[in-house]
Fold these 4 entries.
Entry 1:
Amino acid sequence: QVQLVESGGGLVQPGGSLRLSCAASRTIFSINTMGWYRQAPGKERELVAAITSGGSTNYADSVKGRFTISRDNAKNTVYLQMNSLKPEDTAVYYCNLRGRVMQMSSTADYWGKGTLVTVSS
């Protein structure tokens, strides 16, 4: 079964940078997309960035030009480089994988446990 483990969260000052990592287990038959969502206090979970198996990317308007999503297929890992961080970026960030764990499996969503990013002076 797919297991997703996030790392890289923490406390950073406004204008600073962090890199989040999400490592997936090697039981995946095919991946449609991997991405990052976030949920701030009192708000709904929102898509931050996603990357398809073909390398196409999608970003929330609020992070375009500041965040970059990338992947390392050999390591089954997706990254989120976050630059020029703002207080409004503070949230729990969740790794998401959409794919098929086995050839006969249906496409499904899998989630990590989340990592907290706090942007504060």
Entry 2:
Amino acid sequence: QVQLVESGGGLVQPGGSLRLPCAASGGSFIIYEMGWFRQVPGKAREFVAAIVWSGGSTHYADSVKGRFTISRDNAKNTVYLQMNSLKTEDTADYYCAAGYSYIKYGAVNYWGQGTQVTVSS
């Protein structure tokens, strides 16, 4: 059983930056891909970014390309989402996700508890 713990959410002004870490434990070596989804009330959870754990290939939603960067620290079993040039429409609950296949296509086996990001002046 893999556990995912997010942190780093908070309130930031438009144009600002935040970094969200997600630490994996409990058998994370079996994971193929990790990443992030986000959700606002009344809407479906949407894919944000993902990284292949072993090879490092990355995938991004079109809405965050050029602004968000996903990276990993294998020694710490941690994935990071660096969010720059934040917009009010980035406000959401952000969830760390991990899967045995491509999480971008819904193959999520594990979820974190979520961390709130609010972009507002």
Entry 3:
Amino acid sequence: QVRLVESGGGEVQPGSSLKLTCTASGRTLKLYAVGWFRQAPGKEREFVASVSGSGVSYFYYADAVKGRFTISRDDAKNAVSLRMNSLQPEDTAVYSCASGPNSLDYDSWGQGTQVTVSS
């Protein structure tokens, strides 16, 4: 059974940075696409960033986070991280990671971690 666990969320001030980590068990994460999504209160879940599966890695970012967020793999830890810089209040949301055979087909999801950006 595949299990994804997010960590690293918290409450920070505008302009700060956070690093979220998605750690997997029951699956070798480097062989699968991994995506980060977020859902703010009262809004639909939205795509944040993704990295493609085995072979050459392709990285994709939502326009709202391009240049501020970086997704990366840590194969030794069977994990994928999301480095978030220059955080703004509009980045406040529950962030979840997902894994699947490709970036259009995620079959496993984590429970999410809260990120709050507030002064």
Entry 4:
Amino acid sequence: QVQLVESGGGLVQPGGSLRLSCAASGFTFRRYAMSWYRQAPGKERELVALISDGGVNRNYADSVKGRFTISRDNDKNTVYLEMNSLNPEDTAVYYCKAAALRTWGQGTQVTVSS
């Protein structure tokens, strides 16, 4: 069965950085585009970044362009989200997802606060 396990969240000060990881199993990881979403309290879940199956094509939400970088390691079945210049508006639970699959992980909390 499909499993996605996010990790790497935490509390960070404004301007700081975090690197999220998502370990995938139960499907042929290298054949799927992967994405990161986030959901802040009281808001809908939103797409943050998307990477193609081979890792060549990447797309970002306007709010994170230039600050976040999505990457993947198909040998390790893992997708990453490098987050820099974090601000309080980035506070949310972050989830990864495989395109066209319905499974969500448990998410990892990112809190940006001084």
